[in-house]
Design brief:
Length: 300
């Protein structure tokens, strides 16, 4: 069996499909065909004696189906997968126990923009139908003077506390085996980001992958068309190569999705909520994240 030794762990709405495609195209890297198998989170739940059903879904949550994802890896330098493990602090220790020399890729993004992107994604997918303000206050209270209060553990706000989420990964793997990808760089300079990833993995940095930006979210102009686009894609996968599917999807989404305005007060409350974590993340990564705090609310 080929033991995976490369993990892209998220975060959510931080360019994971684009990064997955950059990795899977390189001849020295094998990526599991299925994104987000989430095996190691299921394994962590089992080790704690907690039920898996209802917490995480999929066909690759047990060892044999998961191992079969890597059956075609051969003798490549890196065999990897992409799952949003960043949100599960029990997972790094498990991965390290099975693959102690693993490399970890992490994408970071302006947390307010990440939150808005997740909202648009859930609207596009039909999982949510309210306003952005409704979305951010599902498990939190937004006070005009104090900002966000009474934030529960279930709140989506926690997905943006990236420095906090990264600590368990740093503790287990150390900074030298982690590579950080700034979403802004991925969006504006994807070829350069690809080269940086390849150098970190010590594979040919001159390989030139096709660049595809995907997974745009937004408010559908046509609910019927969106339902058709969200139909199961199993049959399409059999006949259309993945890179072409993603290109077509990105083009279609750009034509049928709109982005609503966000109230400046809500945006400033998000800025205040994430300020301390962003400062810590900047110190951890050595990246200049100050531009994140300067961007206006979407649509303003």
């Amino acid at each position: 069996m080929t033991v995976p030794n490369l993990f892209f762990i998220g975060g959510m709405r931080c360019g994971s499909t684009t990064i997955y495609l950059l990795l899977s195209q390189h001849p020295e890297i094998f990526m599991a065909e299925i994104k987000e198998p989430m095996f190691w989170y299921a394994e962590a739940l089992r080790q704690k004696g907690e039920p898996v059903e209802g917490r995480v879904n999929g066909r690759f949550l047990t060892r044999r189906p998961y191992e079969e994802l890597f059956a075609g890896a051969g003798a490549v330098k890196w065999a990897g997968e992409a799952s949003h493990y960043i949100y599960h602090s029990e997972v790094p220790g498990l991965i390290s126990s099975h693959s102690p020399d693993a490399r970890i890729l992490i994408a970071v993004r302006d947390p307010a923009e990440r939150m808005f992107s997740e909202y648009l994604f859930r609207v596009r997918s039909g999982y949510f139908s309210g306003s952005f303000e409704d979305f951010v206050t599902q498990d939190a209270r937004l006070d005009p003077g104090q900002g966000f209060t009474e934030v529960s553990e279930r709140s989506r706000l926690g997905k943006g506390l990236q420095a906090h989420l990264l600590q368990s990964w740093i503790d287990v793997f150390g900074m030298e085996r982690l590579h950080f990808i700034n979403f802004d760089d991925l969006k504006s300079r994807p070829a350069e980001v690809a080269q940086q990833i390849y150098r970190f993995l010590e594979v040919d940095p001159d390989f030139s992958p096709a660049i595809v930006h995907t997974q745009r979210g937004g408010v559908p102009r046509s609910a019927l068309l969106m339902r058709l686009l969200n139909l199961p894609k199993a049959r399409i996968r059999r006949f259309v190569p993945r890179i072409l599917r993603e290109k077509l999807r990105a083009q279609i989404y750009s034509k049928v999705l709109d982005s609503p305005k966000v109230a400046p007060g809500t945006w400033q409350a998000l800025r205040r909520y994430y300020a301390a974590d962003i400062a810590q993340l900047q110190e951890l990564t050595g990246q200049d994240l100050r531009p994140w705090s300067l961007r206006p609310a979407p649509g303003n």
